[in-house]
Structure formats: C-alpha cells, structure tokens
Amino acid sequence: MKAIISGFPLREMLMGCLCCILICGIFSSVYAQEMPADSLKLIHLNEVVVISAGKQLDHQKQHKPLSSLDEFLESSRSINMVKRGAYAWEPTMNDMASERLAITIDGMQIFGACTDKMDPITSYVDVSNLSEAQIGSGQQGAAFGNAIGGGINLKLDKSSFKKTGWNGSLESSFETNNAMRVFGGELNYSDEKFYLNTDVIYHKAENYKAGGDREVLYSQFEKYNFSINSGYKLAEDKSISATLIYDEANDVGYPALTMDVSLARAVIGSVSFNQDTLLGNFTNWESKLYYNNIKHVMDDTKRPDVPIHMDMPGWSETAGFYTQANFNKERNHFFFKLDGFYNKSYAEMTMYPANSNEPLMFMLTWPDVRTRNVGIYAEDHIDFEKSSVKLSTRLAYHSNTVADDFGLNSLKIFYPEMDRTNTRFLKSFSAQYHKMVNDFHFNGGISYGERAPSVSEGYGFYLFNSFDNHDYIGDPDLQTESAADANVSVTYKKPTFEITAAANYFHVYNYIIGVVDNSLSSMTIGAEGVKIYTNLEYAQLFNATLSGRYNISNAFKLTGNISYHRGIDNEGENLPLISPISYRSALDFYKNQYSASLSVNGAGEQTNYNPAYGELKTAAYATLSASFGKRFFIRENSLFIKAGIENVLDTYYSSYTDWNNIPRMGRNFYLTISYSIN
Amino acid sequence: MKTLKYIFAILILSPSFISCSDDNEETPMEPNPVEGLNKIYEFPSADHIVEIYSDKSALEVGYNEISIRIKDLAADKYLINAAATWMPMMHMEMMTHSAPHSTLDNSAESSVYKGYIVFQMAGNASEYWDLTLNYTLNGEQITETHQISVTEPTDGLKKVQVFMGSDDSRYVLAYLNPKKPQVAVNDFQAVLYKMEDMMTFPVVENFKITVDPRMPGMGNHSSPNNEDLTYSAADQLYNGKLSLTMTGYWKINLKLLNENGEVLKGEDVTESNPESSLYFELEF
What we know:
Protein name (chain A): TonB-dependent receptor
Number of domains of chain A: 1
Mean pLDDT of chain B: 88
Organism (chain A): Aequorivita aurantiaca
CATH class of chain A: Mainly Beta
Radius of gyration of chain A: 25 Å
Low-confidence stretches of chain B: 8-25
Number of helices of chain B: 1
Shape of chain A: globular
Helix content of chain B: under 10%
Structural class of chain A: mainly beta
Number of strands of chain A: 33
CATH topology of the largest domain in chain B: Immunoglobulin-like
CATH architecture of the largest domain in chain B: Sandwich
Strand content of chain A: over 45%
Largest sheet of chain A: 22 strands, antiparallel, barrel
CATH superfamily of chain A: TonB-dependent receptor, beta-barrel domain
Structural class of chain B: mainly beta
Shape of chain B: globular
Oligomer: heterodimer
Number of strands of chain B: 20
CATH architecture of chain A: Beta Barrel
Radius of gyration of chain B: 23 Å
Largest sheet of chain B: 9 strands, antiparallel
Largest interface: A-B, 38 and 26 residues
Keywords (chain A): Cell outer membrane, Membrane, Receptor
Order of helices and strands of chain B: HEEEEEEEEEEEEEEEEEEEE
Main location (chain A): membrane
Distance between the termini of chain A: 45 Å
Distance between the termini of chain B: 32 Å
Subcellular location (chain A): Cell outer membrane
Strand content of chain B: over 45%
C-alpha cells in the first residue's frame, strides 16, 4: 500500500524525534554529573508472569518452557485467552478484551492490523524475546495506556550491561498432538559497556486433535521470530539501546472462523536513551522512540465451499515515544511518564463475484483511521510504617481522523453528519491503599478510567463476526467509555502458607457493544444481521478469586485458585465471554535439579451465557496435566530436558473462551530440550 | 517522504519548463463550448454543417444528453439564433413512434443547442431511428431528417424501462444520475414519462418511485439511508438518494407509485422474490 506509507506524517515524526533528542541532549549534558541511581522501579503491579528469567534458562519452575507466549499468559491468574484456533489467542483481563486493555511491548503501543481480531499484538512477539509480562488490573495498568480492564506490558529480555561475556543456547521441543516442532537459539554478548542479544525461534504445527482423536481442521500454523537488541554505555550513568523484532506467521488456520491467514508480519523497532539521574532528583530516566509496521492478510483459498472468495488485507503502523523518570522524596516515590503515539489503521476487502464479468466488489473496512494520543501519567507511592498509599493519574488527548475520502464517504452512508475528526480528553484516577496487620495484608482501591472506542468500534465497516454471525458497523459518534471500579483483597501470609481472597467490581458507563439494527441488511452471505457498536447506559462486571499456596516441604509446593466472574448489562442481560467458575491447582516438586508437577485445570458449567451474542452453554470440564524435568551439567554448560503430558485423560471439551466452542486440544505429549553454552 | 518526492519531481521537471517556455507564444484561446463531448455526427450541407455531440461515444438506449451546433460555412460562424427544434422518430416494421425528449435550449451557451432524448429501443437491420431538425439559417426555414444509429449500451446494463402500469398506461422511466457512482450516498435522478400516444410523451408529475439497491452477487444485500425518487417541478426530474456500500454490480429495484400511493409497477424485494420487475442496473 503505497498510500499508507507515503501518507505517514514524516514531519510530525521528525518533530517528535527532534524534541526528544533536544530534551535528551540538554538534560544529559547539564545534569549528568550528580546522584547515583536508586534503581527502584515503581510501577506496582498486581502480577508479573516470568517468561524467561534473564537468559539463565531458569525454566525448571515452568511447567512447559517452550510453550507459546499465549500459554504463558494463560497461566496468569488474571488473564484468560480467547481462542479462535491454536494460534494468536486474545488476552482478556477482568473479562474485558483488547479494546478495553492497554497492551504494550516494552512500553511500545502496537495495534493489530486485522479487523477480525485475528492478530492480538501478543502474537507478534515470542517467548524468546521476553523476560516477563507485567500485569496491572484496572487502572493499575494505566501506566501503559488508556484502559478500562487493565494493562499488560510485555517486557523484552535484555542483558543490560551484566558482565557475562558470550553465551548462547539452543532449544528445541516437539509436541505429539499437532506435531509441533519448535527450534530456537540465542546468542548473547554482554560486558560493562556493551551488550548484544539475538534470538531466533521457529514454530511449525499441523492440525491438532481434540479429545477422542478428533482432528480440528484448519488449526495449523507456522511462525518465526527474530529479534536483536543492543545497548551501549555512553558514560557511567548514560546508555543508549536499540531493539528490532521481526515476526512473521504464515499459513495460520483459524478453525473457528471462516477464513485463515496467509501472512501476519510485524516489524517492531525502537531506540532508547537511559540515564540514571535527571535534574538532580529524578532517577531512572528512560526515553524511547519507536515505530512498528504490521501487515495482515486473510486467506480463504484453502477453504472449500466459500460462498464468495474475498481478499482482506490490513495494515497498521504506529510511531510513538515515551519518556519516564522516578523521583523520590522522603516517603514519596513518584513516577512520571509522558507518552504519545500516532497510528494508521487501514483495511480493505475485495470480493470476487461468481460471475466474473461483473466488476470486483471493494470496500474499505478500516478507512485509514489516524489516531493521535498524547498522555501524561503520574503516580505517587507513599510509604508509611505498616501501610502504603498509591495515587496515580493519566490525562490524555486522543483524536481519530478518517484520512481516506472513499472511507469517509462510505461511513457517511450511515452517519451523514459525521465529522472527519473526533477528539477526546481521557482521564484516569486511582487510589490504592495497602495495610499490614500482623500476618494480614489488606488492599483496597478505587479508581476511574476512560477509553476511546477502538478503530473497529468507531469506524469499522461491515466487519463480520463469526461468533454471533453478524456484520458490525462502527459508530464515529460513540461516547467515551468510562468505568468506576473498586477492588479489595485480603492476604494471610506465613512463610509456608499463603491465602488471598480478592474481588473487584467495575461499573462501566457507556459500555460499547454491538446492538442489532433490524433495519439494516447484512452484507456477508449467511450472516444473520447487522450490529452497530452502541453505548449501553452501563454494564457491571464482578470478579472474585480465592488463591492459595502451601509449601508442604522444601521440595513440594501446592498452589490453587478458584475464581468467579459475572457480567451483566443495564437490563440485567448477560454480557458475552464472561468466565464461569473456574479453578486450577498444581502440585510442584523441585529438588536437586529434578522438577515435576501435576496440575488440574477446570471450569464449572457456564450458566450465565447469552445466545444473543452467539454464545452456547459451555459444559463443565476438568483436565489433568503432568510434567517432569531434569537439568544436567556438562562441564560449564547445562542441558535441560523437560517432558510432559497435557490433558492426560484426553477429555473432549471447550471453554467459554473458545470462539464458536471449537474443542480444545486432546492428549498431548511434549518434550523440550535446552542446551546452554556459557 | 512525500515532500521529498515532490521536490525531486520539481527539480527534474524544472529545466524542461524553462526550455519549453521560449517557443510558446501565449495565444489566448476561447473556451471550447463542446469541450469534453464526443462529436458523434456531422451532417454537411452546401452552406452549413450540423454537428451532433454527446457525452457518450454513441447514441444509446436510455437517457442521452445531446448538444447540437450548426455552422454557417459562409460566415464561418456557429448559429446563435437558429430557433432549433427536433423530433426523434423510430421506424418499426409495422408502425412509427417518437421518444420522450426535451426542447432544444441554447440559453447557457448561445451557439450550442442542448437537450436530451430517451431512446426506448435500439435500431436494427429493419428498424431505425431518425432525427428531424428544424432551424433557421439566414432567415430561411430549414428542415432536415437524418438517420441515426441507436445501440444498446456497451455495458449491457439496463438504464431505461418501458412498461405498462397497472393503470393500463404505458410509461418510460430512464436513469440519469449518478453518471459516476461512488461508494457513498449518491444523488439519484431519473425521468418519468407517460406515453399518451405514439408521438406524445408528457412528463409525469408527483408520482413516487421507491428505491431498494441490491447486490445479487453478495447475498442480495441492501444498503441503508436511500431516499425514494420524488418529483421536483423545478427541473422536472425525480430526485432521490442512492447509497452504495461497495463497488461492483448493483441492481436498483424500484416500485412506481401514483399520487394516491397505488403501485403501478414493481414489487418489494423479499427472500422469495429477489428482484423487482422494475429496476436499473449499475456497475462501477
């Protein structure tokens, strides 16, 4: 797409770059000399999922080391993954999906290029790139962007000037169920002045089989990912770093959808400048400029009996920056962040009529929407004797512009009075309180947050949703969605024993969801009707979890959690994709480089579902998994082998997150081998 | 990037501009009144020539906007007070009939006589159209008849309907605009005539034509916010709105209602009835 590239606002980007460089230059030259760093990172998060702890191959504690990032995220207490197949699962948090979450990669805003949410941005990075996923529920995630449900930041793995010299590793795994082969390798160099991390990983999987050896057609995928990041110390307290990730998936099947994907490609790059101090009192000053470009091409040529063949490519380009620093004064630990991004989202659809003499049918499904967002985030964490308070706020300017006239005129069919540009001011405030009384920890907080409609919600044009079998049309005049939420948790903590009860409640105003408009006729052949994204007056979401850990002995550890979720709209109707009661429990063993685990995962019957949103009642299920691992030392190097069985009983099941209730994978054996050279 | 490209283009082109400007003696040109039109006929006589222009490359079945110029060869000038009138006529094997047409009007551009004709059918080997022109040249009344060729539209799309209404009257409905349809809400225009006899086609006033565009190649889906065609006395046309949500082949299903709201022709599109018997076709 020539138009989308040449239309990019080079001038604005250049201005941004210049400003950043200027600021960096001035501050670094004037204030470089003072104060060593206090390297306290003050983003307080609800949960951190460790993906690969600092290149040390510390995979023992993970049940399945070379699993997909999706599986890692799913292991989090607070995240559930919506599945349209074996690949590119969509994270949800507090029963809210992409458009209500702020998901960033190393602080970078990235937006999928697929109008049908087949490419959540978590699909454009891989476990080989990441060190951890930082998860903040509700407005605790506002540091990453405007959100209602929460924020997830996928932190890239970097050597960060540790004096480790050269090291590398090779990893491979195989899974029997879908014949998945994974090959990965990394090569790193790090000293006090310079580091370079490179890694590459390749996955290839065939169709998987659900319980009872039932093959799920179109669930294959192939993906590779390459990343390089490097840093250089300019001075003792100053460094620059750069990152480049290239990710490409081909031949990805989506059994729950009517079409597959022939290409999903992301190029993600950034340069950053870090300085230990700023203006004397600020610490950990970090500034980053980034750019990413995503291309996504859907493909229905492999499906038999498509009523009409169509091409649906999409593009998403984002450029952005952030600059952040900490500031500590007595009991106050401040964190400040200024960030901004500019995104272009463009998607088109070309349909090939059965009568080849007729002209092609063409429409813009995302009319080249330009999104600008500039925000400031500030938090103060105040420590008292046995308690602490965290106050945070995000204030952002957000605007959407329809750049393409064809697209604007298309939308004007529905909204004759619509403006090309829509601007909003988004606010977020949050207060969290933590108190310790003997072995009890009490946490409570209230917050308020706002978000702008997503590109699809605001400007989507006949986006087919196979879940409820409707075409969706955006509404550019949607109200800003906002939520007031309250959370409370109590933890009883002993060295060998810990139990936490937590609950949160979201009252979402102007809740955005598709509502059927019976006056409209569906475009997609076979669709039941057309839904328009509409603001409901309000919706309510409630989540509660009880989780515990018990260290039976030094070697054995028992963990478990059970959660309850409920979501209803203003008329008391069930919202879609709300989890039934779900639970998981695991018994882990770890001693003398041996590790083993036995885990159970299940959910109750989904009683609160809504057929109007295409939901079917999902039956209760439970699955059992086991793993065994051992690390061997071969001179300086180490060899780590882990094997496991998932869904031991070969249960045929699907969970509420499975799009169109496609069945999940049946019994699966996996074997992972990692060899690391120091 | 874009700016760079422009600068680059200007740099490359600038020498050629400079070199060109020397031999280009700026001669002020009169605006050509038939700019952009195709001359489809030229009928020469001893002392004058009749030129017939259209925006199409030939006269086609349906609505044709036609411009006529008459050149006085002696004066080497186009006539501006020829008081031109015209009459199209179809010579069928068993009968002859005319076609709905406007008067000729040169008020916008004095040397160009403009009007339109709605041809109901194409000529063939044994049946043909001719056009009789009356005008004055140097005070002399001239009548000329020229055979003309009227063909089916090259795209094969239905843009005119000749039909018997349920009131036993014969009507001619022809598509005017949009000439270049867009994915947008288009201004939709049509003309409606009643055939009183073989030669008389008065404009029908104050009827209504409902509009239901459908895409038969894509599940026969419709589009929202169309507006029915209603009569406007100012331009004697039926005006409405036509929403087209994508490019491709569209069938515009229509229903003709008289001033009492009675359906004279056409049916609703339903699951069991995919199209109306009264329709236009569009492709873009």
